[in-house]
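In the previous chapter we treated chains in isolation. Here, by contrast, the input contains two separate entities that must be folded as one system, with a combined length of 633 residues.
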Amino acid sequence: MTEIILRRLGFMLLTMFIVSITIFVISEVVPIDVARNILGQFATEETIAALREQLGLNCPTSARYVIWLIGDDWVPPARELLGGEDLLPSGCTPEGLDRAGFVRGDMGVSTRTGALVAPYLLRRLKSSLILAGIAFVMIMPLSLLFGVLAGLKEGEFLDHFISITSIVTTSSPSFAVGVILIVIFALWLGWLPGISALMTEASAFESPAKLAMPIMVLFFAEAGYVARMTRASLIDVMCQPYIRTAILKGLPHWEVVFKHALRNALLAPITVITLHINWLIGGVVVVEMLFGFPGLGSALLEASLNKDLYVIEAGALLMTFVATSTQLLSDIIYVYLNPRIRYS
Amino acid sequence: MTDRQDMNWICNQWRKLRTSRVAFLLESNLALIGLSIVILWVVVAILAPLLAPYAPNNITGESNGAPSMTHPMGTDHLGRDVFSRLLYGSRSILLLAPFSVLCAVMMGITLGLTAGFFGGIVDEVMMRILDAVMAFPVLLLYMIIIAAVGASAINVVIAITIGGTPGITRIVRSLALDVRSREFVQAARLRGESPLYIMFREILPNCLGPLIVDTCLRVGYATFAIGTLGFLGLGLPPPDPDWGRMVAEGRVWILTAPWTVLFPSLAISSLVVGLNLFADGLSEASRRI
């Protein structure tokens, strides 16, 4: 069991490594001239040259990647150790050696606001995690319940109702669901506040009413999917020989369902929910944008629209880290829940 | 067939008998409903210039005017007719979504066949890289791509192609691995056919069935993604109408002029739901056969 988890951990690190290269290549190699990409096509040659100098863009790409990832304060000790030989090309290590690199929490400085990226993004990440966490806690039990109900009543009205609602809600884009919910609950019924144009980082969690609608949208984006998974899984399990044995043994129906079927039926959806985290992250970005919620998604979107290079790179890697570690967590939960692996 | 498969089969048959009459009718009905919604939108897209009362980018009324006889869905913040923009907006999305899926399918077929046919280290390396791409939240991938290359129709296609390729590659690869060991492929190898010939003439035709069902599902995802990109400001540049961007532009006035955002939202939802119902029915039907 430990071996499986360790292997998964190694695989996660490998994934993060490849992802970090991908992010770096897409944002710093694909645009060819990063400085021009940031400043736009109307910038003068001097300002472009100045920015290139400031960002250290005259240095080869591979060296820039290394500095971005692990920093450059290890260069002088390494030089002494190697007897004066420089590992990085000259021009890549300017006077003030102060970059610690992404892995040690130095995410650089925003090219737009000049603020440090790390504290800003971590604050935003915390807000997003709280929002997604509340949504997750509501989605899990309810959607599992809907899925089990649909699976037990397969082919009947309740099943069709739940299945069709699930298809409609999961296939509608979150922003459209959000708009329809705002029109219904804020405009027609007047129960909840609509969108607040100015939700600051401090005021986001002040009133639960403000969070109700974003959470509802996330619920609609995710619950249908989980419900359908649970339904399919339960129907599958109910066809297994051991369930037939339990029925033929004369056990009451509820006991067959709750004691024998559910345990195995819930294994698939529980792990799939966590694997579906990438989908939820997409939903979170849309919801944050729609309701003006100050989270990691809206921070990234803003950075991406303003070409704020270091915020994009760090934010993207941070988000992927959240996604891959949740996937790792789901693997561990799966191993723990599945007796066939646990006892092997 | 082993005992266990046998039993499962009987159980499934029993289940089908019990539910078939209602379920099958309803499922096929759902697929038909989905197909009709999609066809409706295709017709609208083709006939948009005939159906639209105004040119989509012309200012034809007051700012944020309520729906009336002259403007059935009201006007937006610039005074443009929402109904006309809605009709024209169907064109870009119905063109871009299938096109980008087609690009992704071609990429996926090429990569998947290569990985599945050669196997070994080629397969291993390609799959690890694709796994890493799949570990990305897709929307995030779109955001960094668009930030790097800018927002335009072709870049939306590129982003969606890159986002869709890994999934298709996986499916093609697993199908190719299955077909590769069949006799007719071995016969082709013994005949001395080139790898390209075997990949595209022997293996690919035998993968097409499941691939077509999967492609239909992906058109739904792509439509979803294009709408979302437009909403996030990463889609087609203004001024031409785009459903997602119409919602983003009207977002601020949702409480005073809900018609500017409600109708585009309903439009994209209906299209994606239609596509998914159809694809769902199709995959259900293919599983039954």
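DSSP finds 16 helices and no strands in chain A. The mean pLDDT of chain A is 79. Compare these points with the single-chain example from earlier in the chapter.
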